[in-house]
Amino acid sequence: MEFNQDTFENNYDVGDEIGSGHFAVVKRCTHSATGTQYAAKFIRKRRGGGRKGAKMEDIKKEIEILKYIKHPNVISLHDVYDTKNEVILVLELVSGGELFEYISEKDKLSEEEACRFLVQILEGVKHLHDKHIAHLDLKPENIMLLNHNSQNIKLIDFGLAQKIDPKSDIRAMMGTAEFVAPEVVSYEPLSLATDMWSIGVITYILLSGASPFLGDNKQETYHNITAIIYEFDDEYFSGTSELAKDFIQKLFVKDCRKRAKVDDCLNHPWIKPK
Ligand SMILES: Cc1ccc2c(c1)c1c3c(c(C)cc1n2CCCN)C(=O)NC3=O
After folding, report:
1. How far does the centroid of ligand 1 lie from the alpha carbon of residue 19, in Å?
2. Confidence band of 45 (pLDDT split at 50, 70, 90)
3. Residues acting as catalytic residues
4. Which of 149, 198, 218, 262 could form a disulfide with 138 if both were Cys (CB 3.0 to 4.6 A apart)?
5. What phi and psi values does residue 259 have, to the nearest 5 degrees?
6. Is 138 in the pocket of ligand 1 (CB under 6 A)?
């Protein structure tokens, strides 16, 4: 993989750690020459036959996908450095925190506020889906606010994203239990529809603060998902409009072909600009 042989340290001052994942650590950093701040994602390379670290092909796939997308609601990739033990992605920095934190603080949102976030999430996902890219890890932790007072959001973390071409069928047990679609649980082919299920879960949480399929353990959660066991509990949904529930119901459909697509959601009367 040939990238500028110049070192990351020569061009950036590394700041505090702001996140960590499977094989990656995310740190705030400052471009020395311009003072611009970025998020640096340090991905550990798999050495030899070991299992620690990410496979080079997966790192390359994440980079190719990030290079390929450019949208106001999707985080942008600024630079890449390839060192002996890690690959460093220099990413656009957002400082508003996770949508997850925002919901936790507010417990639940009004339908208008939820719609304002959802339109942006759907626009970002439409940009990916129009390029046949599935994010496959959509959840409130991977939706970041641009800054504290704005409602602008950006989708982050394309570590599990895949280019979906009709021929290849991707099956993989991935993503976070409470957000994954039935086809993930039953190890059937994944598709763009897999993201749409997750958007249903996110919408349910935005409106209620509760998670629709979450059980007392993973097995129970998976059973609730494959059997599509959920309800609009009056405790949380007594004031919710029928349109909002209809929007969610069109996404919690087991058959991927019948599940609402991103354009169906953008044109749904609950979402369509009034
Ligand atoms: C201010 C702040 C705080 C935590 C951040 C980020 C920014 C952040 C960012 C990114 C990623 C992949 C993870 C990030 N994390 C880790 C948590 C994400 N769920 C990113 O690509 N840009 C970010 O600003």
Report:
1. 6
2. very high
3. 137
4. 198
5. -70, 145
6. no
What's the ipTM?
0.96
Distances (CA, A) of 200 to 39, 122, 205, 223, 231: 29, 11, 9, 17, 13
Q: Which residues of 22-45 are buried (b: 16+ CB within 10 A; e: fewer)?
A: ebbebbbbbeeeeeeebbbbbbbb
Model pTM greater than 0.90?
Answer: yes
155 lines ligand 1 (CB under 6 A): no
Q: Is 15 in the pocket of ligand 1 (CB under 6 A)?
A: no
169: nearest Cα among 182, 186, 183, 188:
188
Which atom number of ligand 1 is nearest to the Cα of residue 93? 24
Measure 261 CA to ligand 1 centroid, in angstroms: 27
**pLDDT tens digit sequence for 61-89:** 999 999 999 999 999 999 999 999 999 99
* CA–CA gap between residue 256 and residue 243 (Å, rounded): 21
103 Cα to the center of ligand 1, angstroms: 17
Angle (nearest 5°) at CA 77 between 128 and 166: 30
Q: List the residue whose alpha carbon is closest to atom 14 of ligand 1.
A: 19
